[in-house]
Amino acid sequence: MTTETKQTKSFGHTMRDEFLFDEKWTNLNHGKLPYVGSYGTYPKSVRKVFLDYQLAQESQPDNFVRFNSTAPLLRARQAIADLVQAPLETVTFVQNASTGTNIVLRNLEWEEGDVILTCETIYGAANKTVQYICETTPAETVHYVFNQPMTESDLLSGFRKKIQDVSSESGGKRRVKLAVFDSISSMPGVRWPWEKLVGICKEEGVLSCVDGAHGIGAIELKLGEVDPDFFVSNCHKWLYVPKSVAMFYVPVRNQHLIRSTLPTSFGLVPKDTSIKPTIVPRPDSGLGDSAYISNFAYYGTLDNSAIYCVPEAVRFRKEVCGGEDKIRRYCRELVWEGSEIVASTLGTRMMDVPSQDSPMANVLLPLALTSEGKLVLDVKASVEPNKAEVSSAQIVDWLGRTMVERYDTFMATMEYQGSMWVRLSGQIYLEREDFVKAGEILKTLCGEVRAGAVGRV
């Protein structure tokens, strides 16, 4: 779907004026480079709408929450449904992607032999949730580990084989009931062929739960066409919506499986039909909302002002930025060009990935780790033995703190498959020179790490 319109403002540093960045920070501060991939930020026009809704709630609390919040929630759902190309009745909101995956995992009923398939790049919080489910129910988990570089065809065939092996190796006593995988993984930032993974799940009779935390605003989503079983995506990362807002997509065929919100609230319909359901303390939208939609319309006292900002964020992206296609293309092309600059400056390489359809890329840092995940320092023998090597966790912490304190910026670094990497992001208020600066900063800091700066007071 083409969504380009006339652009009213050019991308690059001039676009910073539309956002809320602190003037004392350099162009590599929060919201620049990879930090936007973590938490995101939003423009001034969205802030105005955000504050207006907060004022409306506080000026007449009961009136707004009970009677006037239905319309802005419906407008937000419609804006998201149009954006992800899904039916309105399949889309609602939760606070973040972790909440969405928790809701799916905690609502499904797990029996002996049920297996949850996860992938190596699963987000840490989602992985913890899977572990908890396996501790408290009969479910088990199987982990799909893949080595880089890996072609898309190898990734897909390995995924299918993992599903089939669970059943064949147990004589049919175990089966993969649910597969959890990313649209774009967080660390490293890699765009996975999630659409084709969903297709494999359908063919193998497995439910698909897509952690699309990095999804809306970053890549095109055609949820009605791809039709995953569950999909959650943060609006506050790439869509320029305040925290905390995530779209939660559940097709009608699966909505009976999602009986409870998190926390469980008024919308739960008891299985015991003799129990009279509690009336939800707000009206529906007048569209004959399903039990699923009504359940998520109200499940506790929450400030939903950020949700109501979704239409304004979509308008800003269309009218000021020229539409989704232009935004995605600029961010994607910038990050891949910029990452080549950083890799050249460091004398390393970019990570080989299945697809470059992503506003995030990864560059190898010149920090060689041992098999134990530690870095042997370039220091003289006189250095204390306990300072002769540092762990990757220490390096990540030191790099992050030093970038913030010394350079007023932040770049997400990680250990992945025995090497140190930095994740970079493209955004509409970034330019090529920002990546030039990033490369210089990383080169300086990596030199200091090798010289033993980590752990010094």
UniProtKB/TrEMBL annotation:
For whether the record's keyword set contains Ligase, the answer is no
Keywords on record: Pyridoxal phosphate
- One Pfam family matching this protein: Aminotran_5
Q: Aminotransferase class V domain: which residues?
A: 70-252
**InterPro entries with a match to the protein in the record:** Aminotrans_V_dom, PyrdxlP-dep_Trfase, PyrdxlP-dep_Trfase_major
Report the superkingdom from the record: Eukaryota
| UniProt-recorded name of the protein | Aminotransferase class V domain-containing protein
Q: Which organism is it from?
A: Filobasidium floriforme
The organism's taxonomic lineage, starting at the top? Eukaryota, Fungi, Dikarya, Basidiomycota, Agaricomycotina
